[in-house]
Amino acid sequence: MTTPVEMLGQTAADLDALLRSDVVAGLPDDAKMQLLRVAGEVQRRVEALVVETVASVDARPAGSGEVAFCGRFGCRTMGELLQRVLRTDAAGAGRVGK
Length: 98
What we know:
The chain is 66% helix and 0% strand. It is mainly alpha-helical. It has two domains: 56 residues; 40 residues, no CATH class. It is elongated.
C-alpha cells in the first residue's frame, strides 16, 4: 500500500527530474503555456493538501493535559510550525491558517 507521504514524495522526485532535464527551455511557446497551466493546477492542489492537513489536526484546548500538535514538534503555534515545515514566512503561514 502506498502512503500519502510516499505518493507525494514520488511526485516531488518526478518534478526534480523534470527540472534537472533542461527540457523546459527547449519547449515551444504553446507547450510552455500548457506547462504553466498544469503547474498552476498542481500548485493549487498542493496548497489544498496543506490546508486539509492543517484542518485535520486535533486542536486541543490549553490546559487539557495533553501536548498540542505543534508542541509535539517543538513549536508554540501552528504558524511557527508551518513556517518551519513549509519554509515560508509569517504571512504565508498565516494565509494557510486562515
